[in-house]
Amino acid sequence: MGKPKKRTSPRKTGTRRSHLVLDLARRVNAKSPVKIRTTVRESGKKIVKTVK
Questions:
Q1: Cα separation values, 1 from 4, 35, 41, 50, Å
Q2: Contacts of 26 (CB under 8 A, 6+ apart)
Q3: Could you give the CA distance from residue 18 to residue 39 in angstroms, rounded to a whole number?
Q4: Which CB contacts under 8 angstroms, 24+ apart, belong to 47-52?
Q5: Which of 15, 19, 23, 35 could covalently link to 7 via disulfide, CB atoms 3.0 to 4.6 Å apart?
Q6: How many angstroms separate the CA atoms of 5 and 23, rounded?
């Protein structure tokens, strides 16, 4: 997936590339059967405890 370029004005929260990619990934996850990794908390591995 191509990444959108950063805006020219520096360090505004909404204009950073990572935020734009996250927004795109969430939109894809909402509609597509193929899921894209967003953040660790959102799409992290489920921790399963094994009982001995």
A1: 10, 13, 22, 37
A2: 38
A3: 10
A4: none
A5: 15
A6: 14
> CA-CA distance, 49 to 52, in Å (whole number)?
10
* 19, 13 contact by CB (below 8 A): yes
| CA dist., res. 37 & res. 29, Å (int) | 9
Helix ranges (H only) for 1-52 are 17-31, 40-43
Residue type at position 5: K
What does pLDDT average to in each consecutive run of 10 residues of the chain (52 residues)? 68 70 89 86 73 70
